[in-house]
Amino acid sequence: MSEHNIGITPSTSRKTRPDWLAALVLVLSQAFTTGLAEAADEYVAVSVADPYLEMRTGPGRGYPKFHVVDRGETVDILTRKTDWFKVRAPDGKEGWVDRNQMELTLQPGGQEIEFAQSDQEDFTDARWEAGILAGDFGGANIISLYGGYSLNPNVSIEVWGSQILGNFSNGWMGSVNLTHETWPEWRISPFFTMGTGVIHTEPKSTIIQGEDRTDQVAHVGAGFRFYVSRRFIFRAEYKSYVVFTSRDENEEVEEWKAGFAFFF
Amino acid sequence: MESRFRVLFLVVAMIALSGCANGFLGLGKKKSAPPPAEAPDPEQVIDPQVERRTIKEPAIDAEDFEVGAFVGIMSIEDFGSDFVYGARLAYHITEGFFMEATVGQTEAGLTSFEVLSGGAPILSDRDFTYYNLNLGYNILPGEVFIGESRAYNTNLYLTAGLGSTRFAGDDRFTINVGAGYRFLLNDSVALHLDFRDHLFDIDLLGEEKTVHNLEGHLGVTVFF
């Protein structure tokens, strides 16, 4: 059972007569719970080292505290949502505890636990990053999705997929690039990047017949990542592309875009 | 004489600078590096049995991703309303913010002109498909109570984002704004009620204009 109990009576043995809405919701939640029941009975157990541990009814700052667990008692950690942990107290009550309080608990052997947190240090050290950026690509709109992996604090490799939506043509672009951050520990961390990829262009049907084209591109660029808070990054960048067309001249396209990313 | 002083100063300056540099370089590392292992103190009587270690990130099941499907009704400006269905993937970054990707499909009906004139249809391909990438914020988290002893967590959230719509033979840059209500049946399953407005420019009916395409849908998602 995952919905918390407000009363003292455990929900499974309650005797109140539910109305039809309650019955419907109950059936639904039971059906899904059994359907998705996990075999995990081995939860991580920690003991409370602070004077007390406050349990809330939901995973958020505003939810009311409805129970406290005293120092020395052991709680099981059932699941985690962002920075909130669902724990089960010795008396069976289940509630949500935030990460700052969980850090003050100890493992059975007396060891401290460090939960994956998200602060500026992780901004520098986190391995994975993903984000959404949008902007201007040579006069057309561009929407991009990217994922990155840090090889070390300075260098990371990124894979991008973009859709280009213009007045005269549409298309997509896929690219791979390396970025180098000179000062990864700075809150506003500038980077340089270069990479290569493929661009596909489809002229719009209303324009005089044009051909679909797929060309190779290469780019260099620069930008910055700004650590906002928690796992959030604001990212803005400029890239200069060279499209290796099959015609006599290569095409040059400038791209500006900005967006949000997060690390994990 | 003067040059000898100069050499002397240079030597002093170099030594001082190299010292500083070492100090600077060492500064960052000193914090994280453990203190140098000390030789066992012969006078220490009690040998601590438990070595205090910091254990990183025990295996706790994190449920920050949400995946699901939805059905509803979507109104395409000038083209009537029809059923819409689609899928959603979300990642919860903090208790407030989440990122979301949705795809959906509906079909364009007949314009009033097509109905009244009974003439040839304006469009041969009437599929309307969209995707969008949104940022969402849980603006009003809360609880609802059903009966005396059941409480369910809920969220009222706002979303906004960008995407593309394929309609009338073209991909169109689309922005969308909306609001939704998430009702958590338990920690893993949620019901959604969502309203979105998809805006894009289109010149299909003569003049270029920005159209509003309103969508309302009900969905089910699973956290994992």
Account of the protein in words:
The complex is a heterodimer of chains A (264) and B (224). Chain A has helices at residues 20-35, 99-102, 120-125; strands spanning 44-48, 52-56, 65-70, 74-81, 84-88, 94-98, 105-106, 112-114, 128-137, 140-150, 155-165, 169-181, 188-203, 213-227, 232-244, 251-263. With 264 residues, chain A is mainly β. Chain A is elongated, with a radius of gyration of 26 Å. Chain B has one domain: Porin. In chain B, 17% of the residues lie in helices and 53% in strands. Chain B has an 8-stranded antiparallel barrel. The longest helix of chain B is centred in the N-terminal third of the chain and has 31 residues, at 2-32. The chains are: A mainly beta (264), B alpha+beta (224). Chains A and B meet through helix 1, strand 4, strand 5, strand 8 and strand 10 of A and strand 1, strand 5, strand 6 and strand 7 of B. Strand 8 of chain A pairs parallel with strand 1 of chain B, so a sheet runs across the interface.
Helix content of chain A: under 10%
Tell me the total number of β-strands of chain B.
Answer: 9
- Could you tell me the radius of gyration of chain B in angstroms? 32 Å
Tell me the CATH topology of the largest domain in chain A.
Answer: Porin
Mean pLDDT level of chain B? 81
Mean pLDDT of chain A: 81
Number of helix segments of chain A? Answer: 3
The strand order across the widest sheet of chain A is 9-10-11-12-13-14-15-16
Task: Just give the CATH class of the largest domain in chain A.
Answer: Mainly Beta
Order of helices and strands of chain A: HEEEEEEHEEHEEEEEEEE
Beta content of chain B: over 45%
Strand order of the largest sheet of chain B: 2-3-4-5-6-7-8-9
CATH class bucket of chain B: Mainly Beta
Main pleated sheet of chain A = 8 strands, antiparallel, barrel
Q: Residue share in helices of chain B? A: 10-25%
Query: Can you write the helix and strand succession of chain B as a string?
Result: HEEEEHEEEEE
Q: What is the second-level CATH architecture of the largest domain in chain A?
A: Beta Barrel
- Counting copies of identical and different chains, the oligomeric state is heterodimer
**Which two chains form the greatest contact, residue counts included?**
A-B, 66 and 53 residues
Sheet/helix structural class of chain A? mainly beta
Report the uncertain regions of chain B: 19-34
